[in-house]
Design brief:
This protein has 231 residues and is mostly helical. It is built from 11 helices and no strands. The protein has 2 domains: 60 residues, Homeodomain-like (Arc Repressor Mutant, subunit A), CATH 1.10.10; 134 residues, Orthogonal Bundle (Tetracycline Repressor, domain 2), CATH 1.10.357. 65% of the residues lie in helices and 0% in strands. The longest helix has 28 residues. The chain is elongated and about 60 Å long.
Length: 231
């Protein structure tokens, strides 16, 4: 078990180093030598886990998809908003996610399949939109697949703009503006009135997901009373 744990830690160290190099240099300019130097591992250790730079990049791309599930909400529109704002928060705070997004938008990465994050995001949002539609939350003309594509593409553009202008410092504000412009064309006004779009929502959802679970305290069995003895 200790050997397996060590291998898992080494793999994560290599991925974290690769994410830093990919985020700083882009896919084409990044080299295995730079990643080795950043990770402080041997070439043998790296190639044990990843056979090529492409495999490293795919590993980084897949990491950003590991936390797309948000807590279940009675209002599925709120769940959609939570998924989007959570991703925005992680872009601001998680280098692995930032590197994955840079890779997915890197048009110079000609030999890298960058479709995975777009497809996964689209599937998550399409499923949530279908659930919202089934609950009568959406306007009659909405087609979940089409709307999902619009949301994913719009988010990609907004985050790229935020990265270029402020290094993601204003991402929450920009994503909030995007949702306030798009959602009234998707969701019934009566539903949207109760949806939380505040700037701190992404951070609060993240804290909800990562907060340690309180230990379950067993409920004591009811005490049985001994009948009073009669003389």
């Amino acid at each position: 078990m200790a050997k397996q744990d060590r291998a898992i830690r080494t793999r994560q160290t290599i991925l974290s180093a690769a994410a830093k190099v990919f985020e700083n240099c882009g896919y084409q300019a990044a080299t295995i030598t730079e990643i080795l130097s950043e990770a402080h591992v041997t070439k043998g250790a790296l190639y044990f886990h990843f056979q090529s730079k492409e495999e490293l990049a795919q590993g980084v791309l897949s990491e950003q998809d590991q936390h797309l599930t948000v807590p279940d909400r009675p209002c599925k529109t709120q769940e959609i908003v939570d998924a989007i704002l959570l991703h925005a928060h992680r872009l601001q705070t998680d280098p692995m996610v930032r590197a994955g997004v840079r890779l997915s938008l890197d048009q110079q990465a000609h030999d890298l399949d960058r479709s995975g994050p777009f497809r996964n995001w689209g599937e998550v949002l399409r499923t949530l939109l279908e659930k919202a539609q089934a609950q009568g939350e959406l306007l009659p003309h909405i087609q979940p697949q089409e709307t999902s594509d619009v949301l994913v593409g719009s988010f990609a553009g907004v985050q790229a703009m935020s990265q270029a202008l402020t290094s993601y410092e204003d991402l929450a504000e920009r994503v909030g503006s995007l949702l306030r412009h798009l959602l009234p064309n998707v969701v019934l006004a009566s539903v949207l009135a109760s949806v939380d779009l505040t700037l701190s929502r992404g951070a609060r959802v993240f804290n909800e997901l990562t907060a340690p679970q309180a230990p379950q305290v067993p409920t004591p069995a009811p005490r049985t009373r001994t009948p009073a003895r009669t003389a």
